[in-house]
Amino acid sequence: MKTATGIFQSRSAAEAAMDKLRKSGIPENQLSLLTPNQNGDQQMPTTEGEQPGMGKAIGGVVGGALGLSGGMPLGAAISSLLFPGVGPILAIGFITAALAGTAGAAGGAVAGGALENALTRGLPRDELYFYEDALRQGRTILMFRTEDDEELESGRKILSENGAESIDAARERWWIGMRDAEAESYDSPGEFARIEATYRQGFEAALDLPNRGKNYDAALNHLEKDFAPTCHTREFRAGYDRGHAYAQTTLDREQQNSRKIT
User: In the Cβ-directed half-sphere of 114, how many Cα atoms lie within 13 Å?
Assistant: First the structure.
C-alpha cells in the first residue's frame, strides 16, 4: 500500500479535495485527514514526563461517528487527540482504524503507539516532524492510500490541483524560515553556506522519531547507522545540538499551551 499526502491551508480546502478523491474512485476507508482541533473538544491532558513524538505521548483518544461539512461522509470515524509539541487535533478516517480496541480500556500511550504505526505506514518516518509543523501552523493534512500506481498519480494530481503543498515543499519552506537564525548561531557565520547541507542534516536528524528527545551522545549509535561518517563532523554535531534544543523548546511551548487549554 502506497500513501500520498497533501498539506492544505484550511480544513475546508482539504475536505473539498477529499470529496474529489472519493468521487475519483478512492474508497472512503483509504482516506484520512489530520486537522487542528481549535475547540479542543473531547480531549484529555497529557501526563507529566512524557517524551516527545507523534504518537507515544498522546494523552487521550475518543472515537466518534460524526459528520463534517464538505468532503467527509456522514459516519466518518473521528478521534480527538492531544499531541505534545502540536496541541489538540482531530484525526479522521483510516488513521482512526489503528486505534480500534485501544481507546477506552487502554491508556493513551497504547493508542498513541497504534497511531504512530498508522502514520508511518507508507510515510517516511523522517517526514513526521514536518507534518507536526504543518499542524502547529494551523494547516490540515490529507492522506490517501492505494495499491494502484495510476490511482496514486491521479490522486496526487487532484491534491495538487486543489492547492495542496507537498511535503518536500513544506520542508523547504520550513528551512528557509529557520536558515538565517541558524547561520547567525553558527560560530563561523561566514562559513555557513559551505557547511549548510551537513549542518541541516544534523538539525533534521535531531527531529527524527528515533532521536527525538535524545542528546547527541545518546543518539550516536543510531546516527552512525544512518549518517556515518558524516555524523562525526563538527558541522553535523552543531546542527544536531541546535535541532535537539529546537525540538525541546517547541515541545515545552506547546505543553504550556495545552495546559492553558485543559
Answer: 21
